[in-house]
């Protein structure tokens, strides 16, 4: 059964078309990214998937059910972009309350609340009120709430926005570690982060699904992305073009080059590049098989 199925999904606010005829089929597995510029329709799509709003046209199904169906209780969860905590209740009390709403007994609700707080490394803050939490801690509590009951599908709207790099890394590691049992759909503007985490990337623009990119394809395509410490671009380009099986090389950003080759044996190209750097005493920073997500989406 498909995890998510959208067919001709559209949503208008007045005469503003926020989503326009979107078809999406998603399967359970590795995290899936949802990207797109401000106003592209990402939050609208999440809200439709969660059943917070109804479509203007088209269909949406999750695990074979309409959003908001009782059959989905405890099986899907979401972290809204603007999730807020109740300022009057300590963290444990409010998470326990949400667990009872999911059907847990009082005793089990507390245990489940502590389990998810442990997952986000905040068990020691269980008795704190939201006002005494930092922004990053409050975000982790909201993520803990989404993880209650080990749902099959979790929608995270900008889960690491505003977090410092260490906290953002913790969230990424958590998502990775839970991905065996839960499929995450993550909306974010941080392409580097999504590249590390996700196998599939959906690109929305002006309410339409423009691209669906598989990150695994990078293992099989004919590109290498080369980042140098610093170099003389023209000398590098000339030297690389003289190597066997190179079709083209372009400087795409400062010190970053996209190499297209026509060899089935990418290791041969990599070894030739490393030999060249050794001969010329050039320092490289990174050799990436394939193209970056940014290149795939915007070139
Ligand atoms: N409640 C609403 N009433 C009217 N227009 C809305 C409403 N919610 C969203 N829109 C409009 O729908 C479009 C899509 O908005 P949405 O919030 O889904 O985009 P987004 O991709 O999540 O943007 P961002 O990256 O800025 O969060 C925008 O043009 C927005 O102004």
UniProtKB/TrEMBL annotation:
The keyword Ubl conjugation does not apply. Gene3D superfamilies: P-loop containing nucleotide triphosphate hydrolases. The keyword Transport applies. Keywords: ATP-binding, Nucleotide-binding, Transport. Residues 4-231 form the ABC transporter domain. PROSITE patterns: ABC_TRANSPORTER_1 (PS00211), ABC_TRANSPORTER_2 (PS50893). Coiled coil: none annotated. Transmembrane segments: none annotated. SUPFAM superfamilies: P-loop containing nucleoside triphosphate hydrolases. This is ABC transporter. It comes from Shewanella sairae.
């Amino acid at each position: 059964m498909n995890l998510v199925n959208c067919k001709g999904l559209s949503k208008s606010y007045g005469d503003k078309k926020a989503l326009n005829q979107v078809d999406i089929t998603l399967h359970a597995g590795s995290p899936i990214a949802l990207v797109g510029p401000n106003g592209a329709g990402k939050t609208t799509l999440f809200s439709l998937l969660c059943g917070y709003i109804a479509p203007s046209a088209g269909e949406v199904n999750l695990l074979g059910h309409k959003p908001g169906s009782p059959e989905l209780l405890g099986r899907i969860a979401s972290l809204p972009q603007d999730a807020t905590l109740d300022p009057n209740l300590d963290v444990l009390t409010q998470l326990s309350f949400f667990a009872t709403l999911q059907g847990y007994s009082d005793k089990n609700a507390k245990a489940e609340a502590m389990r998810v707080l442990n997952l986000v490394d905040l068990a020691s803050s269980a008795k704190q009120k939201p006002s005494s939490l930092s922004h990053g801690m409050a975000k982790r509590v909201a993520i803990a709430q989404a993880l209650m009951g080990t749902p099959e599908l979790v929608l995270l709207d900008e889960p690491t926005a505003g977090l410092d790099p260490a906290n953002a890394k913790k969230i990424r590691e958590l998502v990775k570690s839970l991905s065996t049992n839960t499929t995450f759909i993550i909306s974010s503007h941080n392409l580097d982060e999504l590249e590390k985490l996700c196998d599939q990337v959906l690109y929305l623009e002006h309410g339409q699904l423009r691209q669906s990119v598989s990150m695994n394809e990078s293992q099989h395509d004919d590109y290498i992305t080369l980042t140098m410490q610093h170099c003389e671009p023209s000398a590098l380009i000339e030297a690389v073009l003289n190597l066997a099986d190179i079709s083209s090389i372009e400087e795409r950003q400062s010190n970053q080059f996209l190499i297209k080759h026509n060899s089935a044996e990418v290791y041969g190209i990599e070894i030739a590049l490393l030999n060249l750097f050794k001969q010329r005493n050039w320092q490289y920073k990174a050799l990436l098989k394939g193209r970056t997500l940014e290149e795939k989406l915007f070139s």
